[in-house]
Amino acid sequence: MFSRRQFLLTSGGLGAAALVIGVLPKFSVSSALISDADAAQVFEVTHTDSEWHTRLSAEQYEILREEGTERAYSSPLNNEHRAGTFSCAGCDLALFSSDTKFDSHTGWPSFWAPLDKAVATRQDRSFGVLREEVHCRRCGGHLGHVFDDGPKPTGLRYCMNGLAMTFEPQAA
User: Fold this and answer.
1) pTM for the full model?
2) How far apart, in whole angstroms, are the C-alpha atoms of residue 39 and residue 138?
3) Which domains are seen in the chain, by residue range?
4) Mean pLDDT, to the nearest integer, of 75-84?
5) EC number(s) in its UniProt entry (predicted)?
6) Which of 35, 93, 135, 143 has the most CB atoms around it within 10 Å of its CB?
């Protein structure tokens, strides 16, 4: 898997300073390079690259910190149907309630709404397609993308990587 950041680094698009963990670039509408108008976003929870590697599995690191995508139907959270809360695997922020989870038949855990003030979005123009990337508002970890083909009441489908989240079942 080749992440957008790896591509930009190997193509000379970003300097090492732009990859300081805790800072994720916003990509310009006209190119994949950071413009002056698209300032980097700083997050509440930050760690060094080494600390992120220690805290996360290699697969989680690739998704959360390098904006990778897990294989469809590979996450056990896709089949998680108990009542509970889905949280960020990077910083433990509660992201989604099981009350908003639905089977989108896409192979990834999907939700029609996040919890209040849990996620943020930005435009993603990788692969020549305009999408809305979803990331944890506290640590900036890449979670997935949101699409406008979901069920009522929002009509949205938050298509998340299961490895980017943990699940805590509701106490009985």
Assistant:
1) 0.77
2) 17
3) 4-70+79-169 (2.170.150.20)
4) 96
5) 1.8.4.12
6) 143
